[in-house]
Amino acid sequence: MYTFNPGPSAVYPAVRQYLTDAFDEGWLSAPHRSEKVTSLVRQTVTDLKAKLNVPQDYTVLFTGSATECWEILAQSLTPRRSFHLYNGDFGEKWLKYAQALRPASTGLSFGLDELPDIASLPFSADDTDLVCITQNETSTATQLREGFILNLFNRLNGTLLAVDATSSLAGLNLKYIKADVWFGSVQKCFGLPAGLGVMILSPRAVAQAKAVNDRAHYNALPAMLSQMLNYQTNYTPNVLGIYLLSRVLADREPIKTVHQHLVDRAEKLYAFFDQATPLQPFVSNPETRSTTVVGLKGDAALIEEIKGKAKEAGLQLGSGYGPLKNTTVRIANFPAVPDAAFEALVQFFAKEYPG
Fold first, then answer.
1. Residue 229 CB: number of other CB atoms within 10 A?
2. The dihedral formed by the CA atoms of 94, 97, 101 and 106, expressed in degrees to the nearest 10
3. For the chain, is the Cβ count within 10 Å smaller at the N or the C terminus?
4. What's the pTM value of the predicted model, to 2 decimals?
5. pLDDT per position as a tens digit, 65-84
6. Which residues contact 264 (CB under 8 A, 6 or more apart)?
7. Per-residue model confidence as pLDDT tens digits over 131-190
8. Would you say the C-alpha torsion 217, 219, 221, 226 has a positive or negative sign?
């Protein structure tokens, strides 16, 4: 069975061996303050920066998930308010999380096929601590590309920019210097089981965290930053998750190679579904289509039929999300999904729904 679920998604086959090695090497009961574990964390951070092209002066932190990062950022980087751009459920949920802690936070929704006008965005650098975007919106299969993020960053005039890159981190060659906070979870483009989040902070973000000096919360950034100086966490970490991440990073190709492979596959898949197939791309504008999550739309009854037939053929298609659950499917174009799966997917549609 090939799975195209966009999260939790396909894991690398080598994870089976990594898990056995973790047991045999004693990682499951290793004390998290020991040199054994701190050396692992140090090496994992080093490899993550090298393989993903993360600037050396940026700080890597580990969390429980990407959604936990929403709360940490509101508590530790947002003494007044944040401003959120969103066009899907995850971006909107981030705004709601922020408003629960900082009621003055505001947001602006935009369409799936459009890009917001950066010059007219309704926020002021004078009273906004953090501007928040979802680089790859998993629920709607849309993407904000490098040029948009660069132009937004240049407009901020000192306000920090935070990017939810949950379904693109470790899949796309992101330009980390053009934002101050990047975060995601490992159950998507890292090809690992869920249970570990990665947060990447610029020097500006670290400085703001120290200035805000949040000491009222368990996972406050000052405490997290202080512990990471010694490659430790302020809570008992997911040592197994970090070990698996370390093994994946050591084995995978550099991000530029991974990125190009995913771009090539996405282009072929969109070209196929742009033709006379029963399902059509959910996002019409090629400039706003996601590279890593391909969304397709169709009649609810037809989608149910296609998903059933695909499952019989050994292909598990991802359901739509939220209000789109029954009228869309999502196909994860993540690194751990093999080329053979996409070949089988195209052959399935060519056979079952020709012309």
1. 8
2. 50
3. C
4. 0.96
5. 999 999 999 999 999 999 99
6. none
7. 999 999 999 999 999 999 999 999 998 899 999 999 999 999 999 999 999 999 999 999
8. positive
